[in-house]
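Journal club prep — side note

Before the paper discussion, L.F. wants everyone to see what a predicted structure for a comparable chain looks like in token form. Sequence:
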Amino acid sequence: MRGKIYLWLSKDKKHALSKGKKLLQIIREKGYELRLDPEVAASLALPQLALEEGEIGELDLVVVGGGDGTILQASHFAAPLGLPILGVNMGRFGFLAEFSLAQTPQAVENFFKGEVYIEKRMMLSAETKGKKLYALNDVVLSKGGLSRILHVETRVGEELLAVYPADGIIVSTPTGSTAYSLSAGGPIIEPSLELIILTPICPHTLSARPLVLKPEEEIRLRLRPPHPGSAFLTLDGQEGISIGMEEIVVKKAPFTANFVLPTHYSFYRKVRSSLRWGVRKGVV
């Protein structure tokens, strides 16, 4: 066998599994040893490919078939283990997935030959209620179902920055700067940089603007009265925690997400083509 690959497919989407069969065949035909999540392996009637716990340390690469949400899920598994992530776009937008299905065989070959670019992407950790969770894109504190605004006490280290009257606040990485933070008016940051972006969501004051901080800073969030009754902390839109008056501490994670990219990769071309940056109709 030429290398051991963990193929990550969304367990929640039937069309992802059906497309994933093609991706699976392509990789196996090249002679690579393949492993799947046990639930995915059962769904595809391939129980012999289920990853066992003792095999995790033997993996060389995580190939992710799907859209950006699936890649975010996979990053939570791969990043703490230091495993490179190769994204294959089988979703709609695919900003984080650099390869098409047709490009995958050559991309995998190039990875094992060392002919790719590995870009390290900063991640965030968030601690609250005795739990520590991680995010590649963003940590978001937002209101629940009621329409009342939040009053978010925001500290940088021990120093009070502001009490934001807003629908919430986004703490983002540079990778997440093109996601929810951008929609809320935050800046676009080149993703290989290490910075923390604070972006209030629909702030009820004109003086509240996004802020870019050093990666060493520790962000402390706490709700102030009047409490709206329900608020939620979400990480990459994947995991959520109901929040009362507990403090939330957000800082740089102790590991990075390592993305496999082609040697000719250009973030600026990606922004121009995917976000249609600065493009008018009929003008390239």
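L.F.'s comment for the group: The mean pLDDT is 90. Keep this in mind when we get to the figures.
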